[in-house]
Amino acid sequence: MNIENSTILITGASSGIGEATAIAAVEKGARVVLLARREDKLRDLAALLGSNALALPCDVTDAAQIETCIQKALEKFGQIDALVNNAGRGLYSPIENIDIEAYRELLELNTIAPLVMMQAVIPHMRQQGSGAIVNVSSGATFGILPGASAYTSSKTALNTLSDVARVELAEAGIVVSTLYPFVTDTEFYGAVEKGQDAAEAEIKGIGEAAHSPERVAEKILGLIRTGERQDDLVPKEYGGSLDT
Question: CATH homologous superfamily for 7-235?
Fold first, then answer.
């Protein structure tokens, strides 16, 4: 898909990877629809990006809010060519200590919300006869990490949803891809629901190997452009394809 003149809907767009993806997309001539809960940050980003950006405050765990945002996006730009499912959160805890309610909330955001987003845009993409969906997973799913079972299981489920959707939607001209970032220097580690100390220790341990959100954004746009099944920023020593 050509990025220029396309309309790209991005969840979790108020900071980090989502914000960087929006900026990079507009720089390449795209229009962007920005979804996140933090209205002030969304408005600031939309003001920076100008008339090619639409800020829509949205809790992506609320299907009614999603549907309203889809309608507003279509009213503004007339089409949705690509969806970037980026919104997500971490939870770090040993199996025996996982808070069940916190885990349910994690699954709602990391797994179910991306599915609902896909279901919301698929009918419009079918009507167009084309579309691209990029689900942002995690390189943590490449390994077995003690303390990360809640988070990685939510993302592993997303991986399967993404792969099956790719097969099911191919005939409709809709391409579904999965991106596996490595540790990224964003607010993610400061917004972990449980296990804050473990999350902070992880990013400190990685140090200079952590990637910028701009580098991840380029990978996301690359998947929209090429339609490849997946890409990653995971070093080979951790099971990925990246030479360090």
Answer: NAD(P)-binding Rossmann-like Domain (3.40.50.720)
